[in-house]
Amino acid sequence: MDLISIRDVDTKWILSLFASASKMEKLARTGGKSLSGKIVGTLFFEPSTRTRLSFQTAAARLGASVLNFGPTEASSLAKGESLSDTIRTIDGYVDAIVIRHSLEGTARLAAQLAAHPVINAGDGGNQHPTQTLIDLYTINKLKHKIKGVNVHLVGDLKYARAMHSLVYGLAMFKANITLVSPPALEMDAKAVSEIEDEFGVKMEKRNSLDASDCEVLYVCRIQKERFADQYEAAKLQKEFQITAESLKGAKNDMIILHPLPKLDEISPEVAESDKVRYFEQAAYGVPVRMAVLERLIKK
Amino acid sequence: MLTVEEIDKGTVIDHIPSGKGLKVLELLKLAHESFEGRVALVMNVPSKKLGRKDIVKVEGTFIDEKDASRIALVAPEATINIIKGGKVAEKNTVRFPKELTGIIKCPNPKCITNHERALTHFHAHKNGIRCMHCERLYTPEELQ
Questions:
Q1: What angle do CA A17, A19, A24 make, to 5 degrees?
Q2: How far is CA A238 from CA A83, A218, A234, A266, in A?
Q3: How far is B69 from A47, CA to CA, in rounded Å?
């Protein structure tokens, strides 16, 4: 099995993964040996800190070794080797491939070429399924359910792949979703109506933040690397900052999540508040990815 | 009045939207130099159903169901008439296939299939047609 898109799995699969991830929380500190002797290849053609390091930590905590293909190795592609040949070659060395690339569909192509399991660690503006699993796991842990929880997705809903994956995952679990973004960064209307049709949910769209009915405020940064005009990206970021003022009226138990890295989209004052739970969310990255690696490699 | 010779054996593709006949020839590779049969394309024919339509006549070749599905994107209401002994032996309508492999390009410039040698693969979905790689959903018009 590969994990390329959140569309590839269902709620039953996700809940069963959560049960494994919950058991992995202890092993994420003490370590285990279930993948001893296995090698996980991490192929990151785009910069990454959390995703790459948490996959590498997850593999190490399960006793697997990591073969890292980073920017230096990516230079062989500059010599003219095709991405497909690179993937086929590395597939001969490892037991699983974790791949991130700026082009959409790269992980799917890798899965077609590789005999070993492939995990998508982000493909352009398309999908980031393990981030979604971490986000859903965090909401389930902190709110004890996902169904019916009022989740506001705030920020760059047009380009952020974490949002594209997450909105699908939340709809699968029938969360109450509100999409909040500047008009220029709204989620593709076709994608929204497709998800609404598929899961029988209705998403509310807003261009400004009103957190009074919000239980989970999920914020993401403006994806400036996907903008042609950097000035426009900076301007939108400035206009769309979560401040103490914008959170007036929010419930006491509202939590703020973020896929990180966080730039200026959350003001320093809010970042220091007890509503912030994104470092806990990032920490769940290890047990969730341990559960994914074990499930895919041991099968 | 413009008349085109009748064919004794072959295929007549009728009810092609006006202006799409050339695209049909292209999709079926009938305009390719390796195709040796006689082909007629009649354009802008008055039609009760479509107002104006194009018609393609192919001599000596029967267009099968798989080939017919290729033209569903450009001519969803086309009819495929199989001609044998100068008479219509079969009349089929074009049906959009559940999957399209290697036939059309993905319009998304950031889709990997536009950068690597990879066969495109599209799935029909109730709300459109999805690229299996970049997962974008398209209308048939967007894929033409």
A1: 90
A2: 37, 18, 6, 10
A3: 42
Q: Which residue among A7, A109, A197 places its CB closest to the CB of B118?
A: A109
> Chain B closest CA to A104's CA: distance in Å?
5
Which of A103, A190, A191 is opposite residue B110, by nearest beta carbon? A103
Chain A residues near residue B110 by CB distance under 8 angstroms: 102-104, 124-125
- Which has the closest alpha carbon to A143: A178, A170, A162? A170
Closest Cβ–Cβ partner in B110, B112, B125 for A109: B112
> Whole-prediction pTM value?
0.85
Asked if B109 is an interface residue toward chain A (Cβ–Cβ < 8 A), one would say no
Check: CB of residue A260 under 8 Å from CB of residue A50: yes
Q: What is the pLDDT of residues A137-186, one digit of tens each?
A: 999 999 999 999 999 999 989 888 899 999 999 999 999 999 999 888 89
Q: Which residues of chain B are within 8 Å of residue A103 when distances are taken between CB atoms?
A: 110-112, 115
Residue of chain A nearest B120, judged by CA positions: A109
Give the torsion sign (CA, A104, A108, A110, A116): positive
**Digit-coded pLDDT (tens) for A6-26:** 999 999 999 999 999 999 999
CA distance A43 to A236: 32
The ipTM assigned to this model is 0.89
SS3 content of chain A, % helix, strand, coil (to 5): 45, 15, 35
